[in-house]
Amino acid sequence: MAGRLWKHGIHSFLEILRTRQPGSHEHMLTFIHQAYTLLELLYESVPILEVIWLNFLGDVSRYGMFVDENSDDGNIWIGVSRQWYSLASEKSPSAGHLYHHLAILARADVIQKLYLPL
């Protein structure tokens, strides 16, 4: 159920909106907030799938980072995504893909620090 929800209900629509940027910017932000709220509700009400919901919350947050990459909101989304992936990796330490996601988020921060003037 969770995989289908992500694949058909959230991810495919986010990808359509992402490919239609910048014209779909507002629609994508609205959908990200709605999907995020839904996933938070599922995280709280269906604890047996907790790690899956944490992973999906991190993924949706990464889309928020993409949409708001040139603003302070993008940095907020990075922190939120990092928080969800970290929590998921604590609950499921053998899931390597979570560390991969955390590395991608850390890489973006390192690149920014290299090129930001002091």
UniProtKB/TrEMBL annotation:
UniProt protein name: DNA/RNA-binding domain-containing protein
Annotated GO CC locations: telomerase holoenzyme complex
GO BP term (any one): nuclear-transcribed mRNA catabolic process, nonsense-mediated decay
GO terms, molecular function: telomerase RNA binding; telomeric DNA binding
